[in-house]
Amino acid sequence: MSKPRPLSPHLQIYKPQLTSILSICHRATGVVLAAGTGLVCLWLIALAFGEDSFALATMIIQHPLGQFVLFGYTVVLFYHAANGVRHLTWDMGLGLEIPHVYATGRIVLATTVILTGIFWFLV
Amino acid sequence: MENNSEKTMPRPRVSGLAHWRWQRMSAVAVLVLMAYFVFVVATIGTLDYEAARAFVATPYQALALVLLVVIGVFHGTLGAHVVIEDYVPVKSGRHALILTINIIMAIIAGASLIAIASVAF
Questions:
Q1: Is B30 among the domain residues?
Q2: pTM for the complete prediction?
Q3: How many other C-beta atoms are found inside a 10 Å radius of the C-beta of residue B75?
Q4: What pLDDT, in 10s, does the model give residues A70-89?
Q5: Is the minimum CB–CB distance between B21 and chain A shorter than 8 Å?
């Protein structure tokens, strides 16, 4: 018998820690962003189709529900970007000690809040 | 070697190194492009129809947008592959799901590029 390949930890039995939660969030936000490209695509199509469809897109975006989705999208984007940089530093072999991993995790959360705040302050 | 090759087929040992490298390289590119467009959206704010079309029709803005769409969709597709490979066994249709995701993402990228092109030209 060949040995079965290792599986990822199952979320139901894995004790939540800051590190694991951030890791799961990186995946979840990645999936949301990939799906979100569909919305960016729809905006471009609305722009291409003409003034009426663009007005409809603008109306949807400016509706409270649209603004809520857009707010969520920015949080998800800034989180994935900040945590992505954290992943890139790991890929370079930096900050792999457990205290560093926790410290950079907190930095990622703070960065997400700050960038989201700055963005919505400017817009 | 045990003679059970009919029951357990040898798994194809495909290298994931190229996939891993493309994921990192596209990550850096998307990071730069996204930073640019977030900056643009934050500073310009809401665009009316004419301003939005003029923006997309500017050659280097169109080029940046094309790069964002192509590399962004590419990065998202690679990420989706990793998630599927972790949680969907081959027997449960992993390869079919990956193919489906590839097709959907290609449609999103293609439709976006056509939309950009029709505004720019």
A1: yes
A2: 0.88
A3: 25
A4: 999 999 999 999 999 999 99
A5: no
